[in-house]
# Entry
Amino acid sequence: MEKKNLLLRTSHIVSGFCLLVFVLVSCKKDNDDGGIYKMKFKANDTMVEFRTQASLTASYGQSGSQYNALFTGYDAESNMSLQVFDSKPIEEATYSGYVLSGSAFVGALIGYQDKSGTLFTQGANNSNATINLTEITSTTVRGTFSGTLKASGKPDIQITNGEFFVWRTN
# Structure
């Protein structure tokens, strides 16, 4: 009888363990990065990624009728900053160009400092910089970006497939 109880308890433990393994193996990972903050893009077809969590931030500000938001990503060798400007609060929308509209600037600015230390920006005229804010919550911001960046005496850099998911500081 005692041997039968031991065998029964052992079979319950083994069954429970097998069920747990089955459930864990059956779980499928979603395609999103599980909430991990990131900023990534191609610079002339070379993938650049920032994954240092403390460097991936969004901050918002206002001065009079000028609203702006700054999204950053960096590591020890390079950095990317995305800025949007508007005459009304920043919202989920596409921002492009950079013009004075009434008493406020409206548009998008992109700055990328590469590993050599060269700072590339979209230039003052004929900018094709675009930042699309697709999700804004009280704690995070998600979006996409692209544009042609320039630096004096250097070939232009095409920024494509840009995407970010950053934590919001305010």
User: Anything to note?
Assistant: The longest strand covers residues 157-168.
